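Predict structure. Chain length: 224.
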Amino acid sequence: MRIVLRIGGSVMASPVNVELMSKYAAIVKKLRKQGHKIVVVVGGGSLAREFISTAKNLGLNMQAQDEIAISVSRLIAQLFLKKLGDVACDKVALTLDDAATCLSQSRVVVMGGLKPGITTDAVAALVAEHVGGELLVKGTDQDGIYNKDPRKHSDAVKLDRLSFDDLQGVFSESQHKAGMHQIIDPEAVKVLKRKRVKLVVVDGFKPENILAAIKGEKVGTVVE
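Prediction complete.
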């Protein structure tokens, strides 16, 4: 199976969690050994948002803020790539074509951001589209998708399964902002819906959830 694994920066990079990164590396190696083709897309987390804030305070525009955030996500991606060792590509993929070339060599692709104006969620969706991905699993700082933000509403209810159309009503942000932080980027959803790529959102602090999602076990929230 061709799988895109999106590891939220809020999980692995806020701050950089060495133990968690090591566990994810072990899981990715296991999946590859099982014959899966894997693309891993990581975010910059709180470190990226810190740099965005600095860029904003310097009076830099949105594009410049995005470029800074992309650099941070690629730094996190490079750490993960080096931890994977020989099973990964020689370097962090900077384009969709880079990702496709690496995957054709049966090695693990690791990416951060791509270009200003799109989040790493959107990168994950676009690379899934580009390489014919069948499943996108996102490890985030929530155990799934809720009907409203559980950090703000104590009566929020977790949704086990929903359609891409249903998902539109869950968003708090409908337009891109540098450093935006929500469960899944609306632009990513448009791409996944267009290509009918199944999405599973799980608690990323428990890497074993990734394996459960790939096996089709009941975990997190399934969107299809």
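Summary: The first strand starts at residue 2 and ends at 7.
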